[in-house]
Hints:
GO terms for molecular function: oxidoreductase activity, acting on the aldehyde or oxo group of donors, NAD or NADP as acceptor. By secondary structure, this protein is of the alpha/beta class.
Amino acid sequence: MLKLSNFIGGQWQGSVSGRTLQAAASDDGSIFATFPASSFDEVNRAVSSSRGAQNQWVSLPLDERLAMLRKFADRIESRAEEIAREEQREMGKPIAVAHQFLQAGLSAFRAALEDGGNYPFHTSIKGANGTTEINRSALGVVAQIVPWNFTVAQILVNLGPLLASGNTVIIKPSEKATPSACILFEENLLPSGVLNLVLGDGQAGKALAAHTDIDLVVFTGSIATGRKIAQAAGSNLNRSILELGGKDAAIVDVGVDVESVAMDVAAGSFLNSGQICTSMERIYVHQDIVESFLPALVEASKIFAEGGRMAIGPMVDNDQARIVAEHVSDAVALGAEVIAGGIPTEVNGNHFPPTVLTGITGNMLIAQQETFGPVAPITVVDSFATALELARESEYGLAATVYSNNAENLAAARDIEAAVIWINGWQASDGIRQAEPARSSGMGAMGGTLSYDAATRPTTVFVPHEGGRP
């Protein structure tokens, strides 16, 4: 049985109260670790440590900070296999998928350090009356509250600019996926207090968000929790950056390569058991190709089913499996048809098979609420315009994917309110992204230099020409 601890001020520490929580394996629910049920006392200790370390950290030359952070990334990468296996145990992620996203997180972290070396922390502009200096300084202490589906990768994606800018950071992982974060901290050789770890459930997250000495909260998670985070931080007039839920649309237009697109839609629906914030959860298929597309999608789903070469793992826990089952049951009761997968007839841990549903209508739960499971809900549409209209009818605005060879349709799709729009390829990227979630999917622009903007506060200093002296 693993006994995990908080990492505060360069030391592993238990909870003040002695209360602990348990980490359960996603596959069968067996308990394999305990960790502190941190509350305000542990959070306050971490904040004090971070505040005490921040002045010395920001005083270091930028090149020294960047060098330390590059070594940190190398040490994390040396533990990639252990992190991947821990993520498999704690939330069901297949090893290959864990490696894929961990490498993506490391790439984003390293790219952010390169951005930091070129970021204009200090700018001088000469004008008619004098010189204007624009200085961007670190905010101070940042709380980063990360989700259970990509614990280490999500930490890394946001962490680089925060630390490189001179902030100190407190990490709070989800209680559903804690052990992998502890491996990361075993490689934390940064100066004491620069990067702290607080374990626990929502009580610890609430204490962090509401703490008066936190300058910024970066949160990834549900809309409901995000609203509470924003309210808690806002009550102290502190900032928050929120990446919240998604109910991402995918549009499949007439004229596309049906088999290729079906494979891409299967990946977008089933990868990581659908437990990705940008998974496809509303799929609109043109009526002229539906008869060929559906069999192709069913065939593609077999690759992600048990025994397939990309077989998915279990849901993170029974609660998440139950939500998926409820959404599928509700859809079937209201007229949807299961053409692949479906609710398991036998108990198989927290596993839920890749499922394809047709006949989806707007009154079904699966058309309205985030499912976060391996389900591809298909709605047949009579035109691209109809699909676009339906895609826009959502409170969510995280991402969308559009498959079409029609230039006019692709131009129209660019107006979907979302942080990211992928054209003819889900998750396709050159590693460049600057975006902000739309609608209820969050707030706060991140990516590239925007992440440094979010991690710093600008100050303007005006110095008049010599003749302007008093």
